[in-house]
């Protein structure tokens, strides 16, 4: 984890985190509604204790891991990451969490494993947004195994050292800082290690707009808007747009994962 | 003529309608122009004091766009309200139309000045992004209508040609509704409700089969 932290710290150089208020009041979590303020307003009813994560598939020790069990075995550290939404806004978040690689190590990844699939909790009685079929619930996401094992990839359990709020994906969520925010799936209840590319929620909804990889890339536009620039949250009414960085500024750490791939085709 | 009321309670509804029309006659149309900028000023004030949340540019842009669409739809209600329910708002139609245009223009201005900012990117967006092309199309259709929403233009064009020109508002409303449908992520109901309302209000204007028959006979 030490090497990974060095990478994260290097990438975080000079980053000024957004305020707690900004990070926790402007969220996309469509299970609570499509408005940016809906999650903060409606996520309060989500039961987050007890919480178990089912880890299954190509692992040596499949099972239901309780949140406490996971927390007792993981080492928490702070990672200050850029967060770039596919909608062309961005913020900087001081996450607390542990590397996904460590959690996968706990379960023991078997040979033949190539991808990792994730699933968000689905509780219609606690999630007013799922009565509308904005997406095919439950929300699912996936990573290639090498992406999942990259030291930058973490499971976050806190922000500013406090427990992560429900609207931000309590009690634990994925954070993949070089990909668009929707890849960083919230309130994870299942992690499956698999041998083929798993379905992902936004790709199922609109495959021409949301690819499996969804790496932040200023040169590959969303069909409906440019990804060349972004607006930083907190700049107010007259903030100017900033250029978007390749892999959201984490090019040194992750470009090697995609060597030889045509990123405009594998978007 | 079908005045939209029938049955035992009809006399009471007719009295209510006449009372409403009588009350409306006392409201001067210029009052609407006086009230028109207030929502925009309120949104601007909210946006600069944190009332629109931590990302006020998108919030302002969306709020102005939604208001513009609501006003366009309000304008489309005026004729069917008179024809089917006998409620007469004709005196306010020009003001509603011009205020709708004012909000479409503010929505466009917010997008240009606060959102996209870079002139080169603006043109690129207009030609490359279908939902923006459609939105600009709606605006373009509304420009001649705003310019001719005055008595002088009606006299110059003549009533018939003026009415024909102002049918462009049907196209503008359809494009405005489509613009909203195209820009949301995932399957969302709200823009479809707006689009449904626009389509119903336009279908109500189609000549009835009897009138078509009468015309050809």
UniProtKB/TrEMBL annotation, chain B:
- Name the needed cofactors: heme b; FMN
Task: Provide this UniProt record's keywords sorted from A to Z.
Answer: Cell membrane, Electron transport, Flavoprotein, FMN, Heme, Iron, Membrane, Metal-binding, Transmembrane, Transmembrane helix, Transport
Membrane topology, as annotated, equals: Multi-pass membrane protein
Question: Could you tell me one molecular function GO term of this UniProt entry?
Answer: heme binding
Domain Ferric oxidoreductase intervals: 65-176
Spans through the membrane: 27-47, 67-84, 96-114, 126-147, 168-186, 192-208
Please give the GO cellular component terms listed in this UniProt entry: plasma membrane
What are the recorded Gene Ontology BP terms? protein repair
Give the principal location in a single coarse category.
Answer: membrane
Localization per Swiss-Prot or TrEMBL: Cell membrane; Membrane
- Give the note describing cofactor binding and stoichiometry: Binds 1 heme b (iron(II)-protoporphyrin IX) group per subunit. Binds 1 FMN per subunit.
The record describes its quaternary structure and partners as:
Heterodimer of a catalytic subunit (MsrP) and a heme-binding subunit (MsrQ).
State its role: Part of the MsrPQ system that repairs oxidized periplasmic proteins containing methionine sulfoxide residues (Met-O), using respiratory chain electrons. Thus protects these proteins from oxidative-stress damage caused by reactive species of oxygen and chlorine generated by the host defense mechanisms. MsrPQ is essential for the maintenance of envelope integrity under bleach stress, rescuing a wide series of structurally unrelated periplasmic proteins from methionine oxidation.
Q: Which family does it belong to?
A: Belongs to the MsrQ family.
UniProt-listed HAMAP family:
MsrQ
Q: What is this protein called?
A: Protein-methionine-sulfoxide reductase heme-binding subunit MsrQ
